[in-house]
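Page 37, top half.
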Amino acid sequence: MLTIYPERWPGRMGRLALDVTALLWTAVWALSGYAIYRLVLSLQVLADAITSTGQTFDRWIQAFRNASPANIPGLSGALHSLADSLQRSAGAPLIARGMEAHARINELATLLGLFVALLPIVSVTGTYLFWRWRDARDVDAAAQFVQGARLTGQVAEASALLAHRAVAQLPLRQLMRVSGDPLGDLAAGRYDALAAAMLRQAGMRPLPVSSGQAVEQRR
């Protein structure tokens, strides 16, 4: 199982705070995208009004057809032709344009909602998740290294390795706060302070004091 949080509380709380912040950031932008979607979608009322107007025209034209006199040579045909012309120029186009506008507004609302939500989520949350995944792998590797040293009793060897990595990797200011003479400590086998600093960098607790360091401290 992957270890995603360090042993030490400062590192654990710091990463937990970052995780909560990333979660809130994602939730805020997801809700913002949904709000934009709903706002643009409300414009469908205008499209539906156009469709309703076209349907109203169709009802009026149908009523006009029903009220037109039948079986009157010339007049009946002219009135039906007029009704058909009105339907083609007023009712049917309005209904078609209203339905098309309804569909386009839905597409626009979806695109704007996704754009508003996904742009900050992918750019910020995605970057954070990538960093968090790499950090969790580093934490897990440090935890396995420390656990292996404790189980096998190779604390002195592990401290020596960590001390050399501390001298090679830690910033000089941090290194000099740990030891006034880091090279001298390496040469004399005083590894524990440097090893502890390297483990603190990874969020882990220091290893038990090795026997060599204990003898050095008693001297």
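Page 37, bottom half:
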Amino acid sequence: MIKKTHIVLVTVLVISLGFASAANADRIEGTGTLTAQGDGVAGLRGKGSVTISGDGILWFKDHAGDATWSISGEGERRDFPRGWIEYVGFNGEFEAEGSKITVVLSGEDIELFAKGTGKVVLWGEGTYEVGKIKGEWSSMGQIMAIRER
């Protein structure tokens, strides 16, 4: 069950992905790929490809208008102004590739794989790996940079 606090956190994280500087948070330089698993909120903004699965609420935006994406599983789609797409009751897998995309999933059993350049925000409980660096998600939230090499 998605908690109301997750909805508020997602709003804050989406804003963070767009405006916050990674220099003001834990910053990890990656090798271009990131994997993460856990419960909470996982969000990505950047250039490259992302595959995310889980059970919760999914948001997606193609900022540049050049993304290709596919979705499988369940969820009720809602389209919002300025290009945001939301899937309520999402339970499946979402894949996207583009030059400027944002993907956020709030929920449980999240599996995230990202390759490219951008920022990833993780909040909740889980683990991640960026290149050879491994760590755990924080209930304080954290922003990590991933870069193509």
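Margin note: The two ends are 39 Å apart (CA to CA).
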